[in-house]
Specification:
By secondary structure, this protein is mostly helical. The protein has 14 helices and no strands. Helix 1 packs across helix 3, helix 9 packs antiparallel against helix 11 and helix 9 packs antiparallel against helix 13.
Length: about 290
């Protein structure tokens, strides 16, 4: 026997316990150290190991090594206490990508610049008309196979469709309303009039979501957005000069608040239907019938 060969080897019973993960310290520490230097014991370990369990272990290791690293947003959400799977769903929201955020920011900057160019005492009509549409469009673009990178996974996952809807809507509204709020701060000369977009934004988004189970995730927000534009065009035609459009008056804000509240109630009543997508418009949480 050569001097380099160990005089002690791991007993076979310990090797079998090692393969099952049942070997406990301090024997586990001794076995780990010994196996790293002893080819004979490694061969004995391979002989008593379950090949199926070994292959499964390698597959898990490969999957772990190949898994994409979490991005900055996902890491921050996990550190804030959000569950891993919830953070992944929030971070994977398509419209939160850099291109979308840059586009929304550019649009808001242009509308703010346009608002500063109007005469003193007027209402920033363009900004108030556009701001409510951005959250609605963001929520609409958060679903469907075209833009959602997790669409196929979401369709077959056990995640409740309404829960997925809530998560995506929360992510989009947080970012969309936040950007709108920052743009509003750039219009200090208009005072509270610059905040008149908030209730219409909630009303449009809530109505679009409430109509989604019946009309689908594309048609519903499209019709709501079209109705909003038609309403503004009609109001502008009946309003003289630079007077405040009816949707942004006190009465119009009250109506928007009522519509938003009714949409939330309707959305709650229809929550189970988000697991049963209509045949013409599948969305995450349920397959087409």
């Amino acid at each position: 026997m050569s001097r380099s060969e160990p005089t002690w080897h791991v007993p076979e019973d310990d090797l079998r316990a090692y393969t099952r993960g049942a070997l406990t310290p301090p024997r586990l520490w001794s076995a780990d150290t010994h196996l790293a230097a002893c080819a004979r014991c490694r061969q004995a370990l391979a002989a008593v190991s379950d090949p199926v369990a070994l292959d499964t272990g390698w597959e898990r290791l490969d999957a772990e090594l190949d898994a994409p690293r979490p991005g900055l947003a996902e890491s921050l959400l996990v550190r804030a206490g959000v569950a891993d799977h919830t953070a992944r769903l929030l971070a994977a929201t398509p419209v939160l990508r850099r291109s979308w955020l840059l586009a929304v920011t550019a649009v808001l900057l242009m509308t703010v610049a346009a608002a500063h160019s109007v005469e003193a005492g007027a209402t920033p009509r363009l900004f108030l008309a556009l701001a409510p549409l951005l959250p609605l469009a963001g929520v609409a673009l958060s679903y469907g196979p075209t833009l959602d990178p997790t669409y196929e996974m979401a369709v077959v996952s056990p995640t409740h469709g309404f829960r997925l809807l809530q998560l995506r809507t929360f992510a989009v509204l947080t970012v969309g309303l936040g950007l709108n709020g920052l743009a509003t701060l750039a219009l200090p000369s208009y005072g509270l009039r610059a905040l008149a977009w908030l209730l219409p934004a909630l009303a449009l988004t809530g109505t679009g979501l409430a109509l989604t189970p019946r009309l689908g995730p594309v048609l519903a927000p499209s019709l709501v957005g079209g109705a909003w534009i038609a309403l503004l065009l009609g109001a502008r035609a009946g309003t003289a000069g630079q007077a405040t459009l009816p949707p942004f008056t006190a009465a119009g804000q009250t109506v928007a608040g009522v519509v938003a509240a009714l949409a939330v109630v309707l959305l709650h009543l229809l929550r189970d239907r988000f697991d049963r997508a209509p045949a013409h418009a599948p969305y995450p949480g349920g397959g087409a019938r």
